[in-house]
Structure formats: structure tokens, C-alpha cells
Amino acid sequence: MGSMGLDDLLSAFAGVNMDDHEQLVGTFARVLGADADQSRFFLEASAWNLESAVGNFLDTVGTRANLATPSAEPASAFRGEESVQQVNAHVFAPGQPIQLVWTFVNVGPAPWPLDAALVHTEGDALGGNPEVSVGGCQPSVEAPVQLNLRAPASAGSYASAWRLRYSGGYFGDAIWLVVNVDGSLPPAAPPAAMQQPSHEQQMQQMQMMMMQQMQMSQQQQQMQTGFGQPQPQVGMAQPVDDEDMDL
């Protein structure tokens, strides 16, 4: 691995959102081989000026000569087509479950970081988990990712953007999903945990509860009545005199 100059180091931050301090700290740590606390210290001390922070770090901690070239950035393609920005629009009933499997391919020379995940970045999250773990996909290997979403309850068109991310930032293109909700379609049933019982079911449940309460009350009364009854007296046998026997 060769040494890097200041310009080379700064070029390694290309594509990093300078307003995203957490992303900047993660990239600073990875590029310069520092830990997160060191990276945050130098960035904050330089008022988040990247060039100043890198220069101060080199002057204080190390030199340009002993900094190794950082590992390659992770790279991905959506279903093998890097130009794909948006999947085909779909039409769903209000509240209809949406299950998708998106396949990404590692087109880079190195495995993806273990913390790689597909995250929601813009638009409507469509009721899904905003972060789905992907893991360390090997080069030239596909990584299928399942999304469990749900169409909104109101009619309209909804867009949702998702992108791969790891601790050092985003990689690959953003993938857009467009969901069209047709209000003329019958709404889908809510999830089982959210379904409300019908009026008839509620009445049946109330009747069962009342019967159970009556049975418990009767049992308690029977137990109390049994405890209140006088118990039979058991006497001891008395000795009998011979004179009494003569009578």
C-alpha cells in the first residue's frame, strides 16, 4: 500500500455530506486510521473544516508518509444494472401488504462491511422497518433483501427511497419505489394484531365474562355457607359405674 498526500486524503472524502457530522467522523476515522473520539476531537477543534482537521491530525499524530491507502469503498449495483434509479410503479389497495425482494450485487473488489444495511432515506417509509441488515456480501455475489411494507390507507401516489449504507456512509445508487393506492379497490384487512372484533363478537365476549363472574360468585357463596354451618360435636366416651349398670 502506498503513501498518500494531503490532496489524496481529501479526495477520499468525495461524496461525503459535510453537513452530516456522524458520516464525516466515520469517514475521517476510516481514512486516517484514527478512532472515533480522535476524529471527532480534531473535526470539532477545526470547526468541522475538513482540510484544517486533516492537517492538524497529521501534524499532531502522524505524517503523510506513514498513512496507508484506505481500503476500497464498497460498491453495489441494483439487480446488476447500475443505471436503474426507479422500479416500475405498482397499484395497490388501501392498506394492502407489500412484500418485495430487491437483489443487489457487490461489484467492488472487497467484501461489504458487516454493518452494511438497506435504509430508508426519503419519502414515505410505507410502514416498513427503516433499516434492513444486509451484511458482508462478498465480491461478485448477489445480496437479496426483503422488504415488508404496507400501502397507505389513503388514495394517492407515494414515493419511497432506499439506499445501502454502512458506518462510513452511503454506497450505490438510491432505489425509488412508487406505490399508487387506488381508492376504488376494497381496503385490505388490517394485521391480525390490529383487527377489532365485530359487535357480535364483543357481545359474546361480554356474555362469557358475565357467566364466568356469576360462576365464581356462586362458588364463593357456597364456600362461605359451608364454613358458617355448625360442625358436629364429637364427645369422648365416659366410664360407667357398676351401680349405674344395675339400674
TrEMBL record:
Top-level taxon in the UniProt lineage: Eukaryota
SUPFAM superfamilies, per database record: UBA-like
Pfam families named among the record's database cross-references: N_BRCA1_IG, UBA_4
Domain (Nbr1 FW) ranges: 90-181
Span list, region Disordered: 217-247
Listed PANTHER family: OVARIAN CARCINOMA ANTIGEN CA125-RELATED, PROTEIN ILRUN
Name of the molecule in the record: Nbr1 FW domain-containing protein
Naturally occurring in which organism (per UniProt): Emiliania huxleyi (strain CCMP1516)
Lineage, opening ranks: Eukaryota, Haptista, Haptophyta, Prymnesiophyceae, Isochrysidales
